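FIELD: query
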Amino acid sequence: MNIQVMPEHKLSSVAPLKQCNVEKKEVELMLVKDQNGVQYTSSTVVAHSSNGPVGTELENDRETWGKKIDFLLSVIGFAVDLANVWRFPYLCYKNGGGAFLIPYILFLFIAGMPLFYMELALGQYNREGAATVWKICPVFKGVGYTVIVIAFYVGFYYNVIIAWSLYYLFSSMTAELPWLNCGNYWNSENCTDPGAINGSVLGNGTSYAKYKITPAAEYYERGVLHLHESKGIHDLGLPRWELTLCLVAVVFILYFSLWKGVKSSGKVVYITATMPYVVLFVLLIRGITLPGSMDGIRAYLHIDLNRLNNLEVWIDAATQIFYSLGAGFGVLIAFASYNKFDNNCYRDALLTSTINCVTSFVSGFAIFSVLGYMAYKHKVKIEDVATEGAGLVFIIYPEAISTLPGSTFWAIVFFIMLLTLGIDSSMGGMEAVITGLADDFIILKRNRKLFTFATAGVTFLFALLCVTNGGIYVLTLLDKYAAGTSILFGVLIEAIGVSWFYGVDRFSEDIERMMGFKPGLYWRICWKYVSPVFLLFVVIASTLTSSSLKYDEYVFPSWANVIGWGLAMSSMLCVPFYALYKFLSVPGTFRERIAYCITPEHDHHLVAEGNVRQFKLRHWLVV
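FIELD: result
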């Protein structure tokens, strides 16, 4: 039976539908989907027995993923990024080895997975980007703008790290790797051959990882970044043409991956999401065959339960699980919005979040087997070579690779892995911006290719600041402030908006309409109580443990910290500013305005009737 769905302003005339021989729940599903912004001309409602699931076939103009695997690979590709390789293994080693997995896995189950599941379900049910999804509670739409702005900021510097990887990849295509020896035009007079550096030379507690006059360290800081030509963030200089060309290449890859929406990006991830696993496996096999590799792996897995008495370990575990899964950037909402309405996003959330965390753990074996080899080679302790971040993937690991037979091959393979790890994560961030704004402004949706080009272009222009001689200082500032406290704040408000103001019970009913079953009590308790408390803990901890901005020995001037906080506030202020705008723009008394602000748009007719569920105690107590 085909039923013509009427516009929202004619909802009062839907009474005749109740006379049809269709179950009430099926009619509700059809109307809610229309009112939440999914535009379609007709619906086919398939009635089943009272014991069977309700089935619907929705025809609408929103594109969907070509195949289910496109969506899964896109989510995995976004979540599995450079931090899985350059941050988690070091954190695990530093914080008690295997003992670190206890708080890490705990936070995965009580906060990471629930938030991941919540965002996928939110996007899939409403079929909207990060901003317009807040039709469910209009006053919180500012949160959508917050995460869109943050995703935009992250693109400024994340693409530069991918450009570095591309530069290293091109530089690796030589018979002898350029960071193997001293004597190159970029080397200083103090450049020291790695073979001459051992434990007795270092002394005084200096770790090899902090030794800045090795050929690999000088190639990174002097040959690639030209850091020695800058006196600080006040002395940036002009963009380096080599890195600028690499940045252009990265931006064009992103543009042509995204210009046709998920139809194009869903195919790119077949390469970018799977290649890192192939390379990681190859590097792991090679790593464990090296002398000293077992010492590195033992250090990685060494269990020190006493470390769990340190609050810093729990803070590291909480922040790592949060940033690793990527909740809050609007990406999961955007990706899920292109799913079919009845897709099982519960299973997807469990699968993809588990794969992400397992990848982080396994990558530690590939990293620490090589660090063990480095320690063996220089006759130093593992702690002297262990490091994280850019120092690991652009100095220590490349140096280790350069000493192996067939070093050119291993270097090319390694930097291909970094390139693909970065590309699909950057694709996710840019898709969050494009989908979030295109769903909000119809003119952008009609001109998606032009809008995608403009987004990529603006990202490129700002990223030029990070490829100057002092670009690493700009990148460090952006990395600390663009998506630090602000993203934690955004997700905290998002969790409160969905679980408390929209309501866990209503959110659970939405999920039941999609998949035929309600989330269990465990998930509902996590959404309403555990996840918000967890996020509040992380926000407070990150604020209290925040230190002044530094890059190695360089301390940033106070004005740079002011700019950083201004950057962070520029995204966070979207929440109160939009809430104020919404409150002032709706009609009625003070009470009615509050009601309109916190009531889903398709229920606004209930406000006129005085039937506002948020004004009833039951709404706040139900789980």
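FIELD: remark
The radius of gyration is 26 Å.
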